[in-house]
Amino acid sequence: MKFNSDFIFGTATASYQIEGAVVEDGRTPSIWDTFSHTPGRVYEGHTGDKACDSYHLWEKDLDLLADLGVGAYRFSIAMPRVIPAEDGLVNARGLDYYERIVDGLLARDIKPVVTLYHWDLPQYLEDKGGWLNRDTAYRLADYTHAVAERLGSRVRTYTTLNEPWCSAYLGYGDVVHAPGLGLGPGCFSAVHHLNLAHGLMAQAVRDVVGRDSEVSVTLNLQMNRGDADAVRRQDIIANRVWLDPMLRGYYPEELFAATKGICDWSFIHDGDLRDIHQSLDVLGINYYSSGLLALSGRPQFPQDMGATCAPGCSDIESLPTSGPHTAMGWNIDPRGLYNLLMRLTSDYPEMPLMVTENGEACDDELVWEDGHAHVHDDERCEYVRAHLEAVHQAISDGADVRGYFLWSLLDNFEWAYGYSKYFGIVHMNYETMERTPKDSFEMYKRIIATREV
């Protein structure tokens, strides 16, 4: 299977997961600093204080990207580095760091793809209510304006939000992501304010760089099977709650019916949907696995919320899926990615697509052979091959898929799992900070060079 010459192969990371240096050059705490330093929140008390130390070792990482041969690199910017205090003043040292990355990528002929918000909300905004506070959306727009003014059209694509589903449902609805409030249906105001922030951030990019850079958003859309009513309702609350306002300018009426009695949606103001509905150049899709749903007849949220649950779906149960499974316990289902791409092609045919995250956590082991370190991650290699085949099949069947970003370049801080899960195609020694490319790195390198699976 051969990909066209304009198909983009890339890889991705996120700021809090790799940067470290959490108190350097004016950076202030994010909600993930607070969350990870709260006992019992993260596996064995791990934090992102040092992570992969990419703040200091960024040139090593860019050299790895050059060796890999990617056409683009998706990374995120930490707002606490750029706007470190409530006064809104821009920290030039924070932007200096990201400008070095952008220029370093361009010097290596790699297109920068910037995610503006990948979950590390400044703690000072959380102290004012975070995503429950409407003002947060406007503060994110101001921050976006500052970033776009500095980096300009050197950035190929500005992505407003990464996986707002996780921010709202796992961070405010449940307790497993920062800030971990466990509000259940009380998180729907966060849903709306994230949507509003997306629209305002997209406008800010357009105001500064016009059409010289692409604007996108990245969603982790749920792909489920099982009971038809369960799948339909989950689709409304997990998928269409983002897709319809962003791409169509309205919330689906079924959303209000599904949440009747638990949310009155009075936080929607006149003009909000007009602001949310902005022209996008590409829709980013993060996909790892699919789900199996049933109607349970008993509440599921928030105490035992499954990976696909959300408020308004309290009688929907996430069932065990057939194997094989990754080290995260997620099923491996490349057909689910194909089905998702085709569904989006059918429902939103005008929207080009990009797979912005896809990868597998494996129980990797570093071994020494002939005096050299190796990681033989055959399972990850097969996962990537199978999902690239699904992407190729979707393109053959009419989906406008522009690229694929493998998650992740490096083993890193995997949120509440700390450093216990390994998604990278480069092994990290967290004591020495030594980076060792795995077999999957070499396989992906060959795919990029030949454009063939």
Automatic annotation (TrEMBL):
Listed InterPro entries: GH, GH_1_N_CS, Glyco_hydro_1, Glyco_hydro_1_beta-glucosidase
GO biological process, one term: cellulose catabolic process
Keywords: Carbohydrate metabolism, Cellulose degradation, Glycosidase, Hydrolase, Polysaccharide degradation
SUPFAM superfamilies referenced in this protein's UniProt entry, alphabetically: (Trans)glycosidases (SSF51445)
Catalytic center residues: E163, E357
Ligand binding (substrate): Q17, H118, N162, Y288, W407, E414, W415
Keyword set includes Hydrolase: yes
Cited Pfam families: Glyco_hydro_1
Entry's EC annotation: 3.2.1.21
Tagged with keyword tRNA-binding: no
Family: Belongs to the glycosyl hydrolase 1 family.
Protein name: Beta-glucosidase
Organism the protein comes from: Alloscardovia macacae
